Amino acid sequence: KHYIEPEINARTSAPKHGLCKMHVLTLVSPIMPGIPANNERFTSHAMKQARTQHAKQDTPVQHDELRLTALPAKHETPTSLLRRSIFDPGFSNQRVDAVVPSIKAKVEELINDVKLKRWKGGEKAVDLQENFSLPLAFKVIYELLGIPFSDYKFLSTNVAVRASASGSAHDAAAAQKDLTDYMEKLVAKKEKNPENDLISEVIQKHLKKGEITRDQLVAHAFLLLVAGNATVASMINFGVVTLLQHPDQLEDLKKDPSLWPSAVKEICRYHTASSFALRRVAIRDVEIGGVKIKKDEGIIALNQAANRDPEAFKDPDRFDIRRNPNPHVAFGYGTHLCPGEYLSYKQLELALEGLFTRLPGLKVAVPFNQLQYTPPDRDVGFVELPVTWKQGKDEGRAINNKK
After folding, report:
1. For the CA atoms of the chain, what is the radius of gyration?
2. Concatenated DSSP letters for 52-80?
3. Rounded to 5 degrees, what are φ and ψ at 15?
4. Is 291 helix (H, G, I), strand (E, B) or coil?
5. What proportion of the chain, given as a percentage, has pLDDT over 70?
């Protein structure tokens, strides 16, 4: 296999050499500037496997099953375009702006819980990952989809098992089945009793009209459930650590909160949590950056490395909350741009501003070099993030009394 960046010293460090260039990412992401419309060079690894499997079984293959995920939009089938047009409106800027007050309330509630946990337990530190970042990410997507938060423990446990690099394939498959079964039951429930949420909306507007099948609805809802939550949580954690490592810029944010949107985009560029998503197989011989890739060979196009490309970013290894322009590709590009990009930005802005405002003197409870990263074959993140802050004498009692 070919890696766009073959040598990275640390999980989030800048690339040293190799094929890592922003223009390389254009070869595997649709609708990028300067790429001809007939740029059919790579297909996804999953599609390649499907192609091989169908060949072995000598069964007919529908075009949509094998469509090249790296093709420009003009090559996409009407079915795939329809599916995206059905779900993407649920993540529009207008819809996200409407739930900002709810996200802010969740941030406040979780910060209260974090304070109370430390006060009641007399603990020196609290794991931000477990007690704030992950619950916030899941609560937000649960509200949008219409999933009861009482199911958080069951769902988050299965999501973790499904994504675990240390577990068995059997356990991962079982977790996937449990999640799919759960989503099938949830869709059936909302068919009978629709509520004010995205799944119910898609059922009423599209499923009942035959514009989407039940299997397609379940599959897409499942993807929305598992795809971005851990990544958002990781970016909250990276934001905390990075700003603590750049105290002058953190002070600038405290003095001028209008800088938060720019700061969040820079955090996403500087630490691209989802960095192994663009795995592709060459469907013909191609040369990239002087490296020849033969037909059927694989590549991993690291958007993490592209976000440190010196040809695209001035002084790319420098963290700069005022960076402008900032054409990062942390959320992908083109027709496969993550629909939750704007939602993620808002979560990060509200979460980070809330943490640094309400937890005075917030700091990591261990030396930075002792923080444990997730395994290399998973998206970048911390296993845990123990934090501490200047605890007010009666702050826990005051929160406890309100509860």
Report:
1. 22
2. HHHHHHT----GGGS--TTS-GGGS-HHH
3. -70, 150
4. strand
5. 74
Please tell me which residue in 272, 338, 344, 374 is annotated as part of the active site.
338
* Cβ pair 382, 233 in contact under 8 A: no
CA angle 208, 212, 217 (to 5 degrees): 95
Residue 200 known to be catalytic: no
Q: What phi and psi values does residue 173 have, to the nearest 5 degrees?
A: -65, -40
Which residues sit opposite 355 in a β-bridge? none
Beta bridge partners of 42: 282
Which of the four pLDDT bands, split at 50, 70 and 90, describes residue 332? Answer: confident
Catalytic residue check, 338 = yes
Section 40-66 average pLDDT = 40
d(CA 4, CA 24): 8
Residue 3 main-chain phi, psi, to 5 deg: -110, 135
Task: With a cut of 60, say whether residue 325 has pLDDT above it.
Answer: yes
Counting Cα atoms < 13 Å in the Cβ hemisphere of 189 gives: 11
Instruction: Compute the distance between CA of residue 53 and CA of residue 25 in angstroms, rounded to an integer.
Output: 28
Q: Is the pLDDT of residue 230 over 80?
A: yes
Residue 386: closest CA among 136, 124, 4, 175: 124
d(CA 210, CA 179): 24
- DSSP, res 14: P
pLDDT in tens, 124-177: 899 999 999 999 999 999 999 999 999 999 998 888 888 765 667 888 899 999
Give the Cα separation of 200 and 190 in Å (integer): 6
- Set 29, 242, 274, 335: catalytic member: 274
What 8-state DSSP symbol labels residue 364?
E
Mean pLDDT, residues 341-350 taken together: 97
Known catalytic membership, residue 29: no
DSSP code of residue 8? B
Phi, psi of 35 (to 5 degrees): -105, 125
Provide the pLDDT confidence category of residue 81 given band limits of 50, 70 and 90: low
151 is catalytic: no
Instruction: Retrieve residue 318's tokens.
Output: 């420098």
Q: What average pLDDT does the segment 62-74 reach?
A: 31
Tell the burial category of 363 from Cβ atoms under 10 Å away from its Cβ (0-12, 13-18, 19+). Answer: middle
Q: Which residue is catalytic, options 231, 234, 272, 374?
A: 231
